[in-house]
Design brief:
heterodimer, A: alpha/beta, Rossmann fold, 2 domains, six-stranded mixed β-sheet, B: Rossmann fold, 16 helices, 16% strand, globular, disordered N terminus, His_Pase_superF_clade-1 (chain B), transferase (chain B), PG/BPGM_mutase_AS (chain B)
């Protein structure tokens, strides 16, 4: 490719293989606001996980953690009393330390978004953050969670506070009682974001766990995405079932991609899956498949309505479609090595990369967040991407996550994360998992390249 | 409801067959394919605008309707003002809208009822999925009537209220869209503005905005000050969530969108589709002309986007400004037909070639994509285009057709045949309720890549009939 002579200043290109363009924007600080037990940390962790998954380097800074490191032992709620000067000093110092780490994350670690997770309930504290951000050229976006439903708050305390390091030596009732007092300490000085006084700030107010939202001055693309995400998540208990299609004819032959039908064992799995789903007695289960024959055949046996998503199609292996690994090594040894060097970013010639897949799957994730009980029948690479989102796996681990055939993963959100239950439905299948070989050098020999290829017919 | 249901009595697994046009696997019984509609909505949705005159309700209604239709959700708007004009024939003055004008009120109520009847027809009988009921709907009473109507018919209701007190915005609004209204054809600007301001006054005393407490069980979005602030209440499903996201991303800041294709490529010259070739000599010439054109346009803060294919990137490189690559802007994937000439496609895949001519929008190349797939792929690009201001998108023929169809509200049947020749820049400028298009041919020769729908689309047609409309190439 010949480049014409450039007269102007150095060309700066921003590649946008990931789903969010403009990595060259100013960093953003997301600032949580709200009384204790309003879901700030839940939102912070979830948002951080989502942003990292879509390729925006994000890190969470929980001021409570800093406080625990400074104070070591938590006695009781008295620490949080507004007249406790000693404690006030420590808490201010912790917030400052956290903000310092936020700056370091942006300048030294190429972070794009920092989530500053603390109560930030006073106008004064928020002003400190705004002024620091202004000085350094960071954008600020506030996320305030407002909730006065005593049941939700009690549930919250039970789910996440009683297991907190602060209450490790207390029983549930003691923890509950102390925490309620803790909340009282904040209430007197709580100044919610004011629609009049704070009309120049960018923020979203979340009322009653998402029943209502107030959104003010969204400045840019990433804030718009964050708002959209926050407006789609919910806390209603539910489970997500992930499974691959039953073993396919091409699986048996050790060939990747294609659009083949199920093998006899694959059909057996489909039946076993139907039995399993029935035994789970799930209310209002939605079933999703890809547009490929093998997932649809699998879903057919369930005897329920299912929805086909093209976005759930397996990764497109381009020129390597329907080849065995041995054939890929024979015909495209350099490509094969490059893939082992960086499996996440490697794109098959005329095909896709895992990074492309994540981009493609983002609307699926968004809809999964909106839904309740769902069974997704998909493919190996697709399932790895979805799993990485739910289990917060980084890009280098994602392409090597284990998603064997004939195994259903049941994901149930709890506390700040996700419980995983794995069910192998007892129907034999080939192994399709290829580990990263030791030698990823382009000059490696065939034996080294094929070292980790699983058996096939 | 869905044919799928009757098949649930069959034994499993059912046979699967692949629909030859869309390449979708469907269960079939006795060779009969079940038509499964994958739809985003369960029951139809009635979107109801709320707000004083000149608050952008019709602007929002039209834009939302255009967007929903483009992403494949059959949507229609119902503007009560239109019904009133049909009923009244001649608009005299604002006095018609006075709250004490009994005769006027009666007519207006009738018009609203008539419009709602047409809504029912569209949603329950004609297969529409979303109806946008565009009127002021400023009283709680009127909204109550609509909610009851929706309940009776099994429609979901979603309110979109536009609140604005900025006199500049309102004045600008009146100038842009009211002066040209049929109501004011025979008035000069001053008269029209004066009358319209009095018209707004007629509504103000009885205006009951959506209330956070009284209306807490309704689903709605309140848009304040042209998008500075939003209040969103009780979004209940996917389509409402998408509508909210869309409404929160659009703006009315004046700007222009420039669309063009890459310069002529080596494969273009050979009459081959797809691939990832570089620019021909004439294509490079075009890139230079494009650079000159852009400089002459003197555009403030222009963003430049390309696909990840060599030919668009080479074109952008010539401009000497930063650009952003989007994989979503890549040309339609022609699957097994990649890099073939139409003559070769006819030779190797005559059936596919005919199917494509039968329904070019829905037709999916084997192991490739359809225009319908392309639209889905391009939706995030459109969303981001809405957020942006001045922007130049260097893309490809099929992609450009999809984007153009969105901006110019072209239907799915027209879309695949929109004319997007090489070496021509389209400048789109939003104006009033639509989009002004200026087409600038940059004076560099190129092949024609536009293939019209031939007369004979039958799978039995002769080669000559099939290749009738293939453009000339080397």
């Amino acid at each position: 490719m010949e480049f014409p002579h450039l007269e102007r200043m150095r060309l700066r290109r921003c590649d946008s293989a990931a789903s969010v363009p403009q990595f060259c924007n100013s960093p953003t600080v997301i600032v949580m606001v709200g009384l204790p037990a309003r879901g700030k940390t839940y939102i912070s962790k979830k948002l951080t996980r989502y942003l990292n998954w879509i390729g925006v380097p994000t890190k969470m800074f929980n001021v409570g953690q800093y406080r625990r490191e400074a104070v070591k032992i938590y006695k009781n709620f008295e620490f949080f009393k507004p007249d406790n000067e000693e404690a006030m000093r420590i808490r201010k110092a912790c917030a400052a330390a956290a903000l310092k780490d936020v700056s370091a994350y942006f300048t030294k670690e190429q972070g794009q978004v920092a989530v500053f997770d603390a109560t930030n309930t006073t106008r004064e504290r928020r002003a400190v953050i705004i002024s620091l951000a202004k000085e350094k050229g960071y954008k600020v976006f506030f996320v305030e969670s407002i909730c006065d439903d005593p049941e939700i708050i009690a549930e919250n305390i039970k789910q996440v506070k009683s297991g907190s390091p602060d209450y490790v030596d207390r029983d549930i009732d003691e923890a509950m009682e102390d925490f309620v007092q803790r909340i009282e300490c904040y209430k007197a000085s709580y100044m919610p974001i004011d629609d009049e006084k704070d009309r120049k700030l960018s923020y979203i107010k979340i009322f009653d766990v998402g029943s209502r939202y107030l959104v003010n001055r969204v400045q840019d693309h990433i804030q718009s995405r964050i708002v959209y995400y926050l407006m789609n998540i919910h806390v209603t208990p539910r489970s997500i079932y992930l499974s691959r299609h039953g073993e396919s004819e091409l699986n048996l032959l050790g060939r990747i991609g294609g659009d083949s039908g199920l093998s006899p064992r694959g059909l057996k799995y489909a039946n076993a899956l139907a039995d399993f789903i029935r035994s789970q007695k799930i209310t209002d289960l939605k079933v999703w498949t890809s547009h490929m024959k093998r997932t649809i055949q699998t879903a057919e046996t369930l005897g329920v309505q299912y929805e086909q998503w093209k976005a759930l199609n397996e990764i497109d292996a381009g020129v390597c479609e329907e080849l065995t690994y041995e054939e890929i090594q024979e015909n495209f040894p350099e490509e094969f090595a490059l893939r082992d060097q960086d499996k996440y970013r490697y794109r098959y010639p005329k095909g896709e990369s895992y990074e492309d897949l994540v981009h493609r799957l983002e609307p699926v994730i968004m809809e999964l967040e909106r839904q309740e009980n769902v069974l997704v029948v998909c493919h190996q690479a697709v399932m790895r991407c979805l799993l990485a989102y739910f289990l917060d796996k980084p890009a280098d681990e994602l392409p090597y996550l284990r998603c064997p055939l004939h195994t259903v993963l049941k994901l149930t959100p709890i506390a700040y994360g996700c419980k995983v239950e794995s069910y192998f439905l007892n129907i034999e299948a080939v192994n399709t998992h290829r580990e990263r070989p030791r030698n990823v050098n382009i000059n490696r020999d065939t034996e080294e390249a094929l070292q980790t290829v699983p058996d096939h017919v | 409801m869905l044919d799928n249901e009757e098949f649930m009595l069959d034994s499993y697994p059912r046979e699967l067959t692949q629909n030859p046009l869309k390449k979708i696997w469907m269960p079939c019984r006795n060779g009969h394919i079940a038509q499964r509609r994958v739809c985003m909505t369960n029951c139809p949705t009635l979107i109801v605008t709320v707000g004083l005159p000149a608050r952008g309700k019709t602007y929002i209604s039209k834009k939302l309707t255009r967007y929903l239709n483009w992403i494949g959700v059959p949507t229609k708007e119902f503007n009560v003002g239109q019904y009133r004009r049909e009923c009244l024939k001649i608009y005299k003055s604002f006095e018609f809208f006075r709250p004490d004008n009994e005769e006027g009120l009666k007519i207006r109520r009738q018009c609203a009822t008539s419009a709602l009847n047409d809504v029912r027809q569209y949603l329950s009988v004609e297969g529409g999925q979303v109806a946008v009921f565009d009127a002021t709907n400023t009283t709680r009473e009127r909204r109550g009537t609509i909610v009851k109507f929706a309940e009776q018919n099994g429609f979901k209701v979603f309110f979109v209220e536009s609140v604005c007190e900025d006199p500049d915005v309102i004045a600008q609004n009146i100038v842009q869209v009211k002066l040209g209204s049929p109501d004011y054809l025979h008035c000069n600007s001053e008269e029209a503005i004066e009358d319209f301001m009095k018209r707004i006054k007629c509504y103000e005393s009885s205006y009951q905005p959506l209330d956070e407490v009284l209306d807490r069980d309704l689903s709605y979005i309140k848009i304040m000050d042209v998008g500075r602030r939003y209040l969103v209440n009780r979004v209940v499903d996917h389509i409402q969530s998408r509508i909210v996201y869309y409404l929160m991303n659009i703006h009315i800041t004046p700007r222009s969108i420039y669309l063009c294709r890459h310069g002529e490529s080596d494969l273009n010259i050979k009459g081959r589709i797809g691939g990832d070739s570089g620019l021909s000599a004439r294509g490079k010439e075009f890139a230079k002309h494009l650079r000159k054109f852009i400089q002459e346009q003197n555009i403030k803060d222009l963003k430049v986007w390309t696909s990840q294919m060599k030919r668009t990137i080479q074109t952008a490189e010539c401009l000497g400004v930063p650009y952003e690559q989007w994989k979503s802007l890549n040309e339609i994937d022609a699957g097994v037909c990649e890099e073939m000439m139409y003559e070769e496609i006819q030779e190797h895949y005559p059936l596919e070639f005919a199917l494509r001519d039968q329904d070019k929008y829905r037709y999916r190349y084997p192991k490739g994509e359809s225009y319908e797939d392309l639209v889905q792929r391009l939706e995030p690009v459109i969303m981001e285009l809405e957020r942006q201001e001045n922007i130049l998108v260097i893309c490809h023929q099929a992609v450009m057709r999809c984007l153009l169809a969105y901006f110019l509200d072209k239907t799915a049947d027209e879309l695949p045949y929109l004319n997007c020749p090489l070496h021509t820049v389209l400048k789109l400028t939003p104006v009033a309720y639509g989009c002004k298009v200026e087409s600038v041919y940059l004076g560099v020769d190129s092949v024609n890549t536009h293939r019209d729908r031939p007369e004979n689309v039958n799978v039995q047609r002769s080669t000559e009939d099939a290749l009738q409309t293939v453009p000339a190439h080397f």
